[in-house]
Amino acid sequence: MDEPLLIMEVDRISKEFGGVRALDSVSFSVYERQILALIGPNGAGKTTLLNIVAGTLPAGNGQVRFRGKRLNGRPTHDRVRMGIARTFQQAHIFDKMTVLENVMVGCHLRGQCGLLHAALRLPALRREEEDVYLDAMRFLNLVGLGTKADQQAGSLPFGQQRLLAMSRALASNPTVLLLDEPAAGLNRMEKNDLAELVRRIQQMGVTIVLVEHDMELVMRLADWVVVLNHGQRLAQGTPEQVRRDPAVVAAYLGTERD
Amino acid sequence: MSIRSVSKSWTRSNLIGLLVFIAFIGTLPLWVRTPYALSNMVLIGIYSLVTIGLCLLMGYAGQISLGQAAFFGLGAYGSGILTVHFGWSPWIALLIAAVITAVIAYFIGIPMFRLRSHYLAMGTLAFGAIVTIVMNEWKVYTGGPTGLPGIPRFTLGAIPIKSDIAYYYLAWGTVIIGLIIALNLVRSRFGRALRAIHDSEPAAQSLGVDVDRYKLITLVISSIYASVAGSLYAHYIIFISPNAFDFSVSVRLVLMVAVGGLASIWGAPFGTAVVILLTMALREIVPLLTRYGSGEHQIIAYGLLLVVIMIFMPDGLTVALVRAWRRLLNSETLRRRLSAYRRRP
Q1: Of A151, A173, A195, at which residue does a domain stop?
Q2: In sequence order, which residues have a C-beta less than 8 Å from that of residue A145 and are 6 or more positions away?
Q3: pTM, full prediction
Q4: What ipTM goes with this model?
């Protein structure tokens, strides 16, 4: 196999919230087509780190580099254009739009037609709308929501809203997809479907960074695991290595006293 | 649903709506003949233009503006000043006033959209107040509180357009163009981005929508609608004064949009008509009920009616009527009557 390609570097990222160190010089690398899981106890700084990578929060110190380019200071929508998409813990669905329209928003950046085209509904815009429609349908079918296209998104059950959020993020054609606790609140069957979906997304050539609590899911999916604890990188390695790491076991289960 | 239907089916319902609307507007003057009614119809058209723009901003992008009358006033004063003091043609004045208003809206919008919800409302309100102060104090050009008289009419060649009926068709023709543009905009990538911003800003941003830029563009578009309406107003009424563009007008504009319903562009002209007709009706009815029927009584009745509408039809009248219509179509009695009708030889 070829040498895996380095796609993103998190380089000594620190972040303080009013004197509290949420992240303390955390570094790791993400390789192409990898599923990287970011795990750790509550309050370890996982979501904060994800927000910094996505551009929702500014980094305190350190850099995030994507394909060698510094991301610091770039707004979120710019990073999406570069190929970094994300989902949220709360699905953040566009409630009042249809399921299909949600995914069509995901195709936003591929649109070429400007305001004048839209205002006069010129033929170029109609063609583009049809392309967007087909594209959106494709991404909707990928997560199995094709039959719900015309429903109002807010009426979907929670698990399906999650899937919709993923389909929507994929529609932006990301190189790296950041998933923030995609399995939280899902039942066992939904989790199995999710795992299968994440695998399929990986096979499409998308690199995945996953923040997750569910250990079973992480062990099953991840190629590489980074463990955070109190804002520091406690360990990293393959799922097997991390599982056996005494420091990780101690952080999760507490140390035994002699 | 096929691809065709996504690009065509929305067009069909809108097209039917538009044709009915044009037919209605076109024939209305045939049976509304009193000058008083007709001049109110012209005003409904002019305010509708403002509310269609405001509906894009409030209903779609979800950003409130309590200063929309200021853009309306900038258009009116722009037109007034350019024609009265500089002798420009009203048509050119309308265009230049719209460009100036758009530029002002752009530069006001940049700091303004750092504010959110209530603070944004306060910010736009302050902007409106400042514009009113300028109208009152910059007396050399605006004529101050007493107003700016002697604004010329629109002209066709060298002939000034004077009749109310001409202004009726001019105003409503512009409304129809404005309506088509707005309906097209909301059915595009642009409209989807606005609705996305309305529902969740972080999610819209995470899909590549430049949220601040879209809000700004929408403000500029809505200001152009308001400015064109202001120019129409100035050349129709031929006299303008600051109180036609003050805070209370901004509030009325917001009410018109809210009464019509935020969910649809169609609600804007509808809500505008309802609010203005209501005011007209109250002006007639209130003096019959109380001997001392005055402005205050009118305001109370007006307020009460609006509160009732907002409590029982929070989505606005348009949505309420559409729902009622659907219920009627689905109702058992109607179906039975229809089938009985069909069975007749």
Answers
A1: A173
A2: A99, A156, A160, A163, A164, A167
A3: 0.89
A4: 0.90
